[in-house]
């Protein structure tokens, strides 16, 4: 007796295999196949926590016109702080909402803004703050950014504005509303 086979079944299995293999190859190409939760970029719903540890940041933790606070996103479900990549570090600051440009206003939560802490020029950690001008400064090559205008470049060799991290307030805490608004880190073009 001859064994009967299902030609359509073989085709369906082949399609399933090819779809799974394609997804895996895409994950490898984008680095997601081996990404640890601590390495993943900030996600909608993540909380912000100080780089030096502590509880989730609230709007009242961010003093108006004070130097930005370095923070990491944290997955609230698993409690994983996304500090496995320095590209996830953000600067959190508060400015008078009346002084914010339209784009910055859309990304802010009660005047609180978050920007990438990595300069797009040479990848330096941004640590400077001009209290007088209320601008963010990169100490490596003196690039200056205007947080009121969505991280726009004021001057310096940097090619692009700082990537913003839109925020919202939920349960009294600062929460990531959307992913970064642009590429984080060194930008060559």
Structure commentary:
- There is one protein chain.
- This protein is an alpha+beta fold and 189 residues long.
- The protein folds into 2 domains: 1-34, no CATH class; 47-176, 3-layer Sandwich (Rieske Iron-sulfur Protein), CATH 2.102.10.
- It contains 2 helices and 10 strands; from the N terminus they run αβββαβββββββ.
- It has helices at residues 7-30, 102-107; strands at residues 47-50, 69-74, 90-94, 112-116, 128-130, 135-137, 144-146, 152-155, 167-170, 173-176.
- A 4-stranded antiparallel β-sheet has the order 1-2-3-4, with no helix packed on it. A 4-stranded antiparallel β-sheet has the order 5-6-7-8, with no helix packed on it. A two-stranded antiparallel ribbon has the order 9-10.
- β9 (167-170) and β10 (173-176) form a beta hairpin.
- The longest helix has 24 residues, at 7-30.
- The protein is globular, with a radius of gyration of 21 Å.
- Residues 8-12 have low confidence and may be disordered.
